[in-house]
Design goal:
The chain has about 425 residues and is an alpha+beta fold. It contains 12 helices and 18 strands. The two termini are about 50 Å apart.
Length: about 425
Amino acid sequence: MHDVKAIRDNPQAFDSVWTAKGFDPQTAFILGLDNGLRSAQAAAQDEQAKRNELSKQIGVAMAAKDGERADSLKRQVETAKAVIRSHEADIADFSARLHDLLAALPNLPAEDVPPGADETANAEVRRWGVPAAVAVAKDHVELGETLGLMDFEAAARMSGARFVVLKGELARLERALGQFMLDIQTGEHGYTEVSPPLLVRDEAVMGTGQLPKFADDLFRTTDGHWLIPTAEVSLTNLVREQIVGEEALPLRLTALTPSFRSEAGASGKDTRGMIRQHQFYKVELVSITTPEQSDEEHERMTGCAEAVLKRLGLPYRTVLLCAGDMGFSARKTYDLEVWLPSQKTYREISSCSNCGDFQARRMAARSRRAGEKGTRFLHTLNGSGLAVGRTLVAVMENYQDEGGRIAIPPPLQPYMGGLTHIGGTPAGGRG
């Protein structure tokens, strides 16, 4: 949500960004509603002052035993009440329309975000690791199905497309990855583990920016709850309608949860395999900070996500997204893209975003300095640390050998009961 005062001060800046993101110019409508709201508020205040003065005069007339004047004044008070109710109706109408319009508009990019309309304008920041030489790289689907541990057909029979059944050692490896990520983030990076609700109400997904624009990307229950598309929703809403003491900041929270996405806008994309699923596990990172802390916290969070890839020995690159490629609520985003040998390219595995005060305004989440009465909006950040299914895909493909055997990265072996490989006889390659 945006500050209307900021839009009044610099409407061109807002329109230029929204136009770049595919929205029509909006500031004329916003400022029109804002002017209408302020006019109605001023008129209501004037009429209330008039009513108060009339009420005083009634008292004077009654004291003077001037019943005729008192009755006339009372009729004027009733008229003033009707006018006030009319102004209040206008205030409610303008407020609702202004809120709905602002709620549907995306955040503005930070000053150091590169301009651009799509991913072609993104800027690579750094790379880590060297992609392994795999003579004939099989994709994760072929590897998993050949091992008999990945079943898309069974999942389709019960659930339809974009689901998978993992079995045996692959199911255990998925679980191991999630636990490994949690242990790093809580034990080494200072995040507090949370077990949050998976079902939330309208105001929760409105607060983090999924509603109203992206309702089609979510799953909704028959009783009006939403399945979380990411634990960002639950974790960020922990400070909803709260005033947090700044001495307690930053708050660093993490959770391993299922995530549910309809992928309404992904028709025809990544239809094969586990890259884009309706249901997947993810370790989410959320930070709640002061405005002064948020830029540094963003760099730190991105490093926390990168640490998992480094520990697993998975080559990746870090990309700064351009203005047109960022998500709805973000003011600055780094994507981490992991190397997939079968595709001979890097694919997104994590997105770490600083949302500034955009979500906090929607959630009425504020902070207060010790000893001060005033409050200000918090800054919120979120990132994947990491998407578990895509990490499983990356491990399978990067640690395969020519015979289809998959080596288990050493950090994961304790979580696998000491198992070092999945599959049969080695045939060269990595592992």
